[in-house]
Amino acid sequence: MNNKKTTIFLVIFLAILIALMFLRACGVGPWNYKNDKNKKENVVEPPVQEVFVVEKDTDTLKTPAEEVIVDSGTAVLVEEPPKEEPKPEIIEKPKPKPKPQPVPSKPKPAAKPKPAIPKTDLPKPAVQKPKREAVTTPVFTNKSGFKPFYVYTDVGTKDNHYSPYGMMGDIRALTVEQSSYENPHSGKTCIKVTYDPKGSSGWSGMYWTEPANNWGDKGFGFNLTGAERISFWARGEEGGEIISNFIMGGIQGKTTEDSDSRAIGPIELSSEWRQYFIYIEEADLTNIIGGFCFTITKTNNMMGATFYLDDIVYE
Fold first, then answer.
1. Cys-Cys with 281: which of 75, 100, 228, 260 at CB 3.0–4.6 Å?
2. Is beta strand 305-314 parallel, antiparallel or unpaired with respect to 190-195?
3. CA 309 to CA 234: how far, in whole Å?
4. 165-196: pLDDT as tens digits
5. Could you tell me whether strands 67-69 and 163-169 are parallel, antiparallel, or unpaired per DSSP bridges?
6. Contacts with 153 (C-beta within 8 Å, 6 or more apart), sequence order
7. 149-314 topology per CATH
8. Per residue in 45-101, pLDDT tens?
9. Is the peptide bond before 107 cis (omega within 30 degrees of 0)?
10. Three-state SS for 2?
11. Which of 154, 264, 156, 252 has the alpha carbon at shortest distance from 209?
12. Rounded CA gap, 106 and 255, in Å?
């Protein structure tokens, strides 16, 4: 604003200055008063003479002033009426431009309220699963001092006793592998049994005998007096496999037979290793030909079954 006012003031001042200079050039103004006075003093007035003005028709006048001739031969010039002094131009101050009014901003739409999450959709807090601790089997102590007597601990070891050759029932439906490396319970290997019901018998089984394939016609077995139980581990391939019996003893042959027998079953297996026991503390163990046996039926396993055995031991 101050700059605009200063500019307007300078414009007006310059206009007045120009007007004054113009008037001075035309000889109008107080600064010519002394000159005019001096001129009047120095001019000698001529003798008064009669002047006759010849009137002319105003319509024929072409110029504002003409010479009039009098008798004395002196020409008198009738001056034009004085011209009007030009008025100084008045410069109007430029009106200040109106400031642009701020455009009101559109109000922002209110945020839509988020729908309440039903309790059923709330994320469940993460549940930390407890760390699985290693299960340690308590060491069994035999009262009579009987030392562990293994039927199977690992393939090819000298600690194994009895031989798995006493096939029974539908022998074509049964496959027994003594050196399976599929997740043994301990050591490097375990026993894998595959049952695929094919024949008309509807069942299969196998004995571990002493000597191999002894059905009571090849001599005596082992004297295991003092043993209190048979311990073994078993698991199914998928879980749910049903084993009809796990047996000790029971062979009756032409020349000899087992002195006693014990059995457990039926047992439904889990997919995890579990330990099972056959208690024989009160059994006659003087002659045990059939050291260990299992039987399985088609009725309980219509689609067949695969299961594993490991660490079979008399304690």
1. 228
2. antiparallel
3. 5
4. 899 999 999 999 999 999 999 999 999 999 99
5. unpaired
6. 159, 160, 186, 187, 311, 312, 313
7. Jelly Rolls (2.60.120)
8. 555 444 444 444 444 444 444 444 444 444 444 455 555 665 655 555 566 666 666
9. no
10. helix
11. 252
12. 111
